[in-house]
C-alpha cells in the first residue's frame, strides 16, 4: 500500500523542500514532515501505485495553483520507519515506476486486484496455488471447480 501526503522536508535545500510524497507501506512509513491534509486525495492509502501517483500529481497541481511561487516535486520511497526525505523524480520516471511496480505485484486469482496483507486460499482439495484478495473471490474460484453431473 502507498500513502500520499504533502511534505515540507527540513534539512534539505529549499528547492527540494516541498514534496508530494508517495510512501510505500502506509502512513507509518511516511516522513514526519507531513503537512495537514488540504486536498481531497491527500492522506489516503492506495493499493495501486498507479492510483497513488495520479493522486500525487493532482495534489501537486492543486498545491502549485494555490501557491504559485513554491517549487513542488513528487517523490516516492520507503522510510523503513525512519526519517528519510525522498528524492524528487520526473513524472515520466514516476509513471514507469508505478507501471513496473503494479505489474510485479502478486494479483488475486479471480479479479486481478493486487493482493494485500490478508489473503485467502482454497482448501487443499481445490488449491491450485492461487491466492485471493477476499473471501468472495475465493468462493467464486471454488464455485468454478464445481461440476454439474
Query: Which segments are poorly predicted (pLDDT under 50) over 5 or more consecutive residues?
Result: none
Average pLDDT level: 88
Summarize the helix and strand pattern as letters.
EEEHEHH
Q: Radius of gyration, rounded?
A: 19 Å
What amount of the residues lies in strands? 15-25%
Structural class: alpha+beta
Number-wise, the strands total: 4
Helix content: 25-40%
- Total number of distinct structural domains: 2
Count of DSSP-assigned helices: 3
Sketch the major β-sheet: 4 strands, mixed
Q: So what's the overall shape?
A: elongated
Strands ordered across the widest β-sheet: 3-1-2-4
- How far do the termini sit from each other? 43 Å
Helix-strand blueprint:
Elements: E1 2-8, E2 18-24, E3 44-46, H1 49-66, E4 72-77, H2 91-104, H3 135-145
Parallel strand pairs: 2-4
Antiparallel strand pairs: 1-2, 1-3
Amino acid at each position: 500500500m502507498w500513502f500520499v501526503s504533502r511534505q515540507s522536508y527540513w534539512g534539505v535545500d529549499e528547492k527540494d523542500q516541498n514534496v508530494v510524497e508517495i510512501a510505500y507501506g502506509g502512513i507509518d512509513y511516511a516522513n514526519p514532515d507531513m503537512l495537514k491534509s488540504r486536498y481531497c486525495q491527500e492522506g489516503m492509502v492506495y493499493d495501486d501505485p498507479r492510483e497513488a501517483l495520479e493522486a500525487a500529481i493532482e495534489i501537486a497541481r492543486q498545491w502549485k495553483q494555490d501557491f504559485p511561487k513554491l517549487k513542488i516535486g513528487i517523490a516516492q520511497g520507503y522510510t523503513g520507519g525512519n526519517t528519510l526525505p525522498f528524492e524528487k523524480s520526473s513524472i515520466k520516471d514516476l509513471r514507469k515506476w508505478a507501471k513496473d511496480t503494479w505489474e510485479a505485484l502478486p494479483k488475486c486469482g479471480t479479479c486481478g486486484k493486487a493482493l494485500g496483507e490478508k489473503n485467502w486460499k482454497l482448501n487443499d482439495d481445490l488449491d491450485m496455488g492461487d491466492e485471493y484478495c477476499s473471501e468472495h473471490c475465493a468462493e467464486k474460484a471454488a464455485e468454478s471447480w464445481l461440476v454439474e453431473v
